[in-house]
Amino acid sequence: MLTVLLIPIITAVLCYLVKSPRFIGYVSLAGMSVLVVAAARLIAASLAAPVYELQEALFMDAFSAYVMALMLFYSFAAAVYSISYLQHEFETGLIDIRGMRRYYGLFHLFVFTMLLVVAANNLALMWIGMEATTIVSALLIGLGFHKRPLAVEAAWKYIVLCTVGITFALLGTFITYYAASSVVGHESALNWTVLSGIAAKLNPGTMKLAFIFMLVGYGTKAGLAPVHNWLPDAQSQAPSPISALLPGWTAFYAIMRFLAIVSPSTGVSFTGNLLVIFGLISIGIAAIFIVVQDNYKRLLSYSSVEHMGIMALGVGIGGPLGFYGSLLHMLGNTFAKPLMFFTSGKIQARFGSTNIANVTGVFSSMPLLGAMTFIGALALAGSPPFNIFISEFTILKAAADKGMWLVLGIFLFFAAVVFYGVLSGFGKMLFGDPGRESGAGSLVRPRIPVTVGTVLGNGIMIAMTASIVVMGFTIPQFIDRTIRACIAALGAN
Questions:
Q1: What is the three-class DSSP state of 118?
Q2: Is the CB of residue 403 less than 8 Å from the CB of residue 327?
Q3: pTM for the whole thing?
Q4: What gap in Å lies between CA 258 and CA 270, rounded to an integer?
Q5: Per-residue pLDDT tens over the stretch 195-224
Q6: Would the pLDDT of 439 be above 90?
Q7: Confidence of residue 437 (pLDDT cuts 50, 70, 90)
Q8: Which letter does DSSP use for residue 140 in this model?
């Protein structure tokens, strides 16, 4: 486990030392490939039995392994895509070699901080890792890349709101320590493994207060409404590969972990009702802004808010089926959301605009990219037969089985609004005459030359598109077993 955490740090240093703009991306990809191979053995071991290191400071079980695998997948995909993306930015003068070295160095430090969150056994160590993700990703969003005014503004907004948010999570951590130390003393009172064993003995009133602080704090980082305000700015202004790395899995991981130690003392109705409320608010606010959106990257950002709300809703409904739908939804978003940010990056490079009105005829001018964008948009909109439809249907069934008909009806209404908004926005971009002029940004730029980087980038996007389609028809058996193991690890059986 320690080796897995050290690899991205070493890769970050190597990338910062490379001075060739042609090779730095491949050094990054090589380091990411080594990380994936090393982590694969750790993930396989964690799925079989919990793994401990550094005197139990580091810990991984099936749930940790599942989330780490998803993080590594979209991080690897972003590393592949970054090669052609950064090369294009370099050739057009938007970034120099110093900026490229800074980008790749921070990229791998960001990967390290995400891995630290899921590998930490201690709540305080996890909180430190979460704060580190904020600082590093903020530099990637604005200060460490283009230094455009809007990007810098988005980065500062991200730092301020997320730091304030996880300060609430820190207070929740203190309260949890107070509750746990009265049961087991001060030693290891913040370890997940210790807390899970004494969860039923913790004071219910104290843990209710701790959960509220944790939910607001990590919910801010995850992008749950109404504390989501940083997300649309950050994801829309960040470089496309970095937008793909901001789905909020680390913060939602923390919420689900904390849920497992709070519910035994407070009862599942308290935590479940709060998550259902936050989930429905997130879906509703996102639906409204998706319909009126004129910027396709911001549209995708509000889609992130919606899908985070759907996962919160599934966990809030609870039971094995609700948790299954939420974890399956997390998997579907790991393919669909990064894919859409990748295709959006290529559309922006070709048309020079993120305004929906300035982009038209993508299907005609770039058929392969248009097809992948169309499939990704259908998936994000919750259309059958794609994988996100399956997870949403699972969550709906969990609500129906528990007789939560009002929740089901509200969810269906907002889902229909989102379906219209996503397909309406991307439909205007995909179809039509590519030569139509709607503004300065609509003038189609020269085609990006084909290089090894673009071939690799297209290859990873095709693989993600194929996965979206295949998993809409069948859930591979090993994924089904892994999700069920996660449910058991979280005590949701």
A1: helix
A2: no
A3: 0.91
A4: 13
A5: 888 888 889 999 999 999 999 999 988 888
A6: no
A7: very low
A8: I
CA distance 462 to 155: 31
Phi then psi dihedrals of residue 148, to 5 deg? -75, 150
Amino acid at 5: L
C-alpha span between 205 and 250 (Å, rounded): 27
**265 with 202: CB under 8 angstroms?**
yes
Buried b (16+ CB within 10 A) or exposed e, 112-145: bbbbbbbbbbbbebbbebbbbbbbbbbbbbbbbb
274-283 pLDDT, tens digit each: 999 999 999 9
CB hemisphere CA count around 302 (13 angstroms): 24
Instruction: Compute the distance between CA of residue 112 and CA of residue 4 in angstroms, rounded to an integer.
Output: 9
User: Which neighbouring-strand residues pair with 355?
Assistant: 295
Q: Please identify which residue in the block is written with the tokens 């392969």.
A: 368
Please give the structure tokens belonging to residue 388.
């996100």
For the chain, give the mean pLDDT: 87
- Alpha-carbon distance of 373 to 426, in angstroms, equals 8
Residue 438 dihedral angles phi and psi, to the nearest 5°: -115, 0
Q: Which two tokens stand for residue 184?
A: 């087991």
- Residues with Cβ < 8 Å from 186, sequence gap 6 or more? none
The pLDDT score that the predictor gives to residue 140 is: 82
pLDDT in tens, 53-95: 888 889 999 999 999 999 999 999 999 999 988 888 888 777 7
Burial of 301 (0-12, 13-18, 19+ CB in 10 A): buried
Instruction: Identify any residues that bridge with 122 across adjacent strands, giving them in sequence order.
Output: 191
Mean pLDDT of 316-342: 92
**Max CA pair span of the chain:** 71
Residues above pLDDT 70, as percent of the chain:
94
* CA gyration radius, the chain: 22
Find, among 111, 117, 124, 121, the residue nearest to 53 by Cα.
121
Q: Please tell me whether the peptide bond between 226 and the residue prior to it is cis, using omega within 30 degrees of 0.
A: yes
Q: Where are the domains of the chain?
A: 267-493
Q: What is the DSSP string of 395-450?
A: HHHHHHHTT-HHHHHHHHHHHHHHHHHHHHHHHHHHSS-TT---SGGGSPPPPPPP
CA distance linking residue 86 with residue 24, whole number of Å: 10
Query: What average pLDDT does this structure show over 110-120?
Result: 93
Q: How far is it, in rounded angstroms, from Cα 372 to Cα 1?
A: 36
Whether the predicted pLDDT of 150 surpasses 80: no
**Structure-token pair, residue 37:** 């191979």
d(CA 42, CA 46): 6
